[in-house]
Amino acid sequence: MKLYQPLCLRNLELKNRWVMSPMCMYAATDGVANDFHFVHYASRAMGGVGLVIVEATGVVPEGRITHKCLGLWNEEQANSLKKIVDFVHQNSDSKIGIQLAHAGRKASTWNGVQLSDSEGWTTVAPSRIPYQSGEKMPQQLTIEEIKNLVSYFKNAAVLALDAGFDVVEIHAAHGYLLHQFLSPLSNTRQDDYGGSFENRIRFLLEIIDAVNEVLDDFHPLFVRISGTEYAENGWSLEDSVELSQILKSKNVDLVDVSSGGNIHGARISLFDGYQVPFASEIRKKTGVKTGAVGLIKTAEQAEEILVNDDADLIFVAREILRNPYIASQIAQQNGENCYFPKEYSRAILKK
Ligand SMILES: Cc1cc2nc3c(=O)[nH]c(=O)nc-3n(C[C@H](O)[C@H](O)[C@H](O)COP(=O)(O)O)c2cc1C
User: Does residue 105 contact residue 120 with C-beta atoms inside 8 Å?
Assistant: First the structure.
C-alpha cells in the first residue's frame, strides 16, 4: 500500500504516510507539557504513525487559545517537550514535529467562549475586528509588534530544535493570527501588512524566512493553511494556490490543507474527505507536496487519496484519538511493514 511507502522531506525520512494531526489538548500549566501529554503523544508514536505533530503551541503567552495551551517561549517548556521527543525517538520509528501558533483575536478563550477581563487577556489582530459580535475588540498590532512576533516564532523554532523536534509546522489556518492577516475580511490594514495579496501574506512569509534560517537539511518546514474560508470576498482556494506556489519557492516542504475558521457562521458542508479537493488542487497546480486532513477515517479512503495523487501525507485527528494504533493495526491486517513495540510482539495480527 502507498500508505506504507516512506516519504523523504529534505533529508528526513518518514516511514509511512500517516500523520497524527495537531490537536489542542488544553491540559498544560503555564505552557508546560506534563504526564498527560507524554502518554498522549508517546502512545501515537508507539502506534506506528510516520509523524506525530504536537498541538498548536503558543510562541508567546497571549498567543495561546486558552491558558491551558502548550507554549514554547522558555526553557522549562522546551524541556517538558524534550522528554516526549526523546521517548519517541528512542521507542518508535515515528518522527515528531510541533505546530507553532498564535491565536490572535481568537486567543483568551475557554470552551470557545472569550474569557472575562479578570481571567483572560487582551487579544491582538491585524485590525480592530472581533471574530464574532459581542466579543471584545482586539488591539491592532503595530509594525514593531509584528516584527517582534516574527522573532518569537523564530525563537520558538530554536527551542523546538533544541528539544529535538524533527519538523516545524507554522499554523496559518483556522482563523488564527496568521490566517487573520491573510484574509481581506479580517485584515483591513493600510500599511505594508494589509491591502494587496502581497501585503497580506507578508507576515507569514517573514515568519517562514525567519524559521527557515533556523532549520537545516534534516528539519522540514510545513505550513497549515485554510484552503478556503467559505466566504464571499474572503480567502479563497485561488489565493491558497497562489500562496502555496510562493511557499514552495520559499523552501516550505509541505502545505497541510485544512479549511475555515476565520468567519463566524460560515456555511461548511461536511462529508468524508471534504477538504481533500483543496489539497489536491494545490498539489496539482503548484507541485508542492500536500497533506490531506478532515474526516479521513479509513485506510481505504487514505489509500485512495494517495493513489490519486491528491496528497502526499494523510493527517488524522479524531480517528487517532479513538485508535492510537491505527497505523500498525492496518499494516498488520494488510501484511505491510510498520513499527509495533517489540514488547508487544505476541499480539501481532497474523494475516
Ligand atoms: C480536539 C481537537 C483539537 C484540535 N486542535 C488543533 C490544533 O491544535 N491545530 C490544528 O491545526 N488543528 C487542530 N484541530 C483540527 C485537526 O487537526 C483536524 O484538522 C480536524 O479535526 C479534522 O480532522 P479529523 O476529521 O481527522 O478529526 C483539532 C481537532 C480536534 C478534534
Answer: no
